[in-house]
Amino acid sequence: MTPKKETTALHRDTLAVREAVARSQYGENSEALYLTSGYVQPSARAAAARFAGEEEGFTYGRYGNPTVASFEQRLAAMEGTEACMSTASGMSAILLMCMGLLKSGDHVLCSQSMFGSTIKLIGTDLAKFGVESTFVAQTDVSAWAAAVRPNTKLLFAETPTNPLTEVCDIRALADIAHQSGALLAVDNCFATPALQLPVTLGADIIMHSGTKYLDGQGRVMAGALCASQQLVTEKFLPVLKSAGMTLAPFNAWVVLKGLETLDIRMRAQSANALALGHWLEQCKSVQRVFYPGLASHPQHALAMRQQSGCGGAVLSFEVKADSPAQARERAFHVLDSMQVLSLSTNLGDTKTLVAHPASTSHGRLTDAQRQSAGVSQGLIRVAVGLEHIDDIATDLARGLETL
Ligand SMILES: *Cc1c(COP(=O)(O)O)cnc(C)c1O
């Protein structure tokens, strides 16, 4: 858990490499990795005070670790929140948030375009414990407003979404939440604090899958909730202590170091994605490109305003076809013709990852559900990495030009 901090005058670039460097007596320049599950207490009295929460100090690995605390403090500084609570994965961050804020009979309002596991966790798993939920159209502000109930405690949005990169208006959703006494949480996985600061637009909680761009090199699982000190101390920490979705110190260290290069990676990968989007729009075999950085995107203006003028590193496109069966066959041909890029459903790596959502991430949905999510058989998602843009385009052209 992050100790409360004075707001600092340093820029985010500086915080990304300098915040929360707690040096040991050896004066190491790089952040130390503390692999320990327990801590030796200086005295029985101190141990009692620490366990009672009356004195600062680590007691047990499930409750806290210096390396984990450094990651939390640095991410909080970059998101502009008072505090942060990290977790073992992005999904366990969402579980922690829901367990901390909701009880049986409460209602959560989400977008229907949220990450698939998020829809499953909130719509199915939490429903078993009496938590009610409604899923509305991502970009329709009036649908969000109309779905609020007296027992609505939480609005949860993700922007841009996967795989169609739909963008929602964070400030408008924050207003709707606050007018009804609810909180707004934003899944900031796709944009990251390098491009988008939801807290400056009124969001109360920023949720992360550190597995994606925060690590940035596809190495470890991690998650986090950035929020006020009060939410972290009173709502999240007690659940983490008993439920134990704790981030491992090694994973925290990897993600902590990943934060140092987040900004330059996001800008370079977004520039590659924009160039690839323009190239795909010229391809004769491409039906449509979905990318917030392109003028053709329905929420282009909002995205540019909300995401520091950057579209992000993920785009999707549809291959032309006469039928869903042909579309699927053509998409598979494009994927199987690649020689350089990775056929992988993950995202947030320096390596470009290409996937067919309809048969993988959205494969368990019914045809009707897939259709309402806009995931057609011809859709291909590209999480653009740091390879040279010409090599990325050439690898996709192998299949696109031989359909
Ligand atoms: C991957 C992802 C998650 C879940 O994170 P894990 O670290 O895989 O548990 C949540 N939201 C979005 C947008 C994601 O891409």
Strand order of the largest sheet: 1-7-6-5-4-2-3
For the residues shown, what is the average pLDDT? 95
Structural domains: how many: 2
Major beta sheet summary? 7 strands, mixed
Distance, first to last CA: 53 Å
- Unreliable stretches (pLDDT < 50, length at least 5) are none
> What would CATH call the homologous superfamily of the largest domain?
Type I PLP-dependent aspartate aminotransferase-like (Major domain)
Radius of gyration: 22 Å
CATH domain topology of the largest domain:
Aspartate Aminotransferase, domain 2
Our estimate of the beta-strand percent is 5-15%
CATH architecture level-2 label of the largest domain: 3-Layer(aba) Sandwich
Record field, number of beta strands: 12
CATH class type of the largest domain: Alpha Beta
Rough outline: globular
Order of helices and strands: HHHEHEHEHEHEHEEHHHEHEHEEHEH
Q: Which small compounds were modeled alongside the protein?
A: pyridoxal-5'-phosphate
The SS-based structural class is alpha/beta
Q: Specify the helix fraction band.
A: 25-40%
Total helical segments: 15
Report on this model:
With 403 residues, the protein is α/β, with parallel strands linked by helices. It has two domains: 2-259, Type I PLP-dependent aspartate aminotransferase-like (Major domain) (Aspartate Aminotransferase, domain 2, 3-Layer(aba) Sandwich); 263-400, Alpha-Beta Complex (Aspartate Aminotransferase, domain 1), CATH 3.90.1150.10. 39% of the residues lie in helices and 14% in strands. The chain has helices at 12-18, 44-51, 66-79, 90-101, 116-125, 141-147, 170-179, 192-195, 229-243, 249-259, 262-282, 300-306, 324-336, 367-372, 389-400, and strands spanning 83-87, 107-111, 132-136, 152-158, 183-187, 205-209, 223-227, 286-290, 314-319, 342-343, 353-355, 379-383. A seven-stranded mixed beta sheet has the order 1-7-6-5-4-2-3, with helices on both faces. Helix 1 packs antiparallel against helix 3 (66-79) and helix 3 (66-79) packs parallel to helix 10 (249-259). The longest helix has 21 residues, at 262-282. The N and C termini lie far apart (53 Å). The mean pLDDT is 95. The protein binds pyridoxal-5'-phosphate (PLP).
